[in-house]
Design goal:
This protein has about 160 residues and is mainly α. The chain is about 60% helix and about 0% strand. α2 (about 10-35) crosses α4. It is flat, with a radius of gyration of 28 Å. The chain starts with a helix and ends with a helix.
Length: about 160
């Protein structure tokens, strides 16, 4: 949460930015989780430090944390453990099947890990990646050179 807010020496600035960007989500979370209202900050019934404590204590599934994660819900500790457990059981099952498969038959395919939406994925190279575009451009240049050589009579 601290990284998302960008905590620095001036925490009030980060909180003001949070209110400006995600005020409705924060207001709903403060009301539902703690029974406090965001407007109390401006009436003097709540301090900036109290607000910071409330924001730091928001659960992973809160609207504010989801908004800070661009709409992705943070996983609970249970979800993380279950994903790891799923992977461990899948790998164990795969090893067991691979060890007991006849040598003449193809080995079973290794299982895919459980999808972890909370871990940013490295961008896969899309079809139009720079390297692919460079290869196509190089092929076009070679083709043009060949066609010119054929047209000029250097190649039959």
């Amino acid at each position: 949460m601290a990284e998302a807010l960008g905590y620095q020496a001036g925490g009030i600035r980060s909180l003001r930015d949070l209110i400006r960007r995600h005020g409705r989500a924060l207001e709903a979370d403060l009301r539902s989780e703690y029974g406090v209202r965001l407007r109390w900050l401006f009436t003097g019934d709540m301090t900036w430090r109290e607000l910071l404590s409330y924001v730091d204590g928001l659960p992973p599934q809160s609207r504010t944390r989801t908004a800070l994660n661009e709409g992705r819900v943070e996983p609970t500790q249970e979800a993380r453990v279950l994903a790891d457990l799923f992977d461990a059981v899948s790998i164990h099952d795969w090893h067991f099947c691979a060890a007991n498969t006849d040598e003449k038959k193809p080995q079973p395919k290794r299982p895919s890990p459980y999808p972890r939406w909370w871990i940013p994925q490295r961008p896969t190279s899309p079809r139009g990646s720079e390297q692919r575009a460079a290869k196509f451009e190089d092929a076009r240049r070679r083709r043009q050179a060949r066609q010119q050589a054929i047209a000029s009579g250097h190649i039959r």
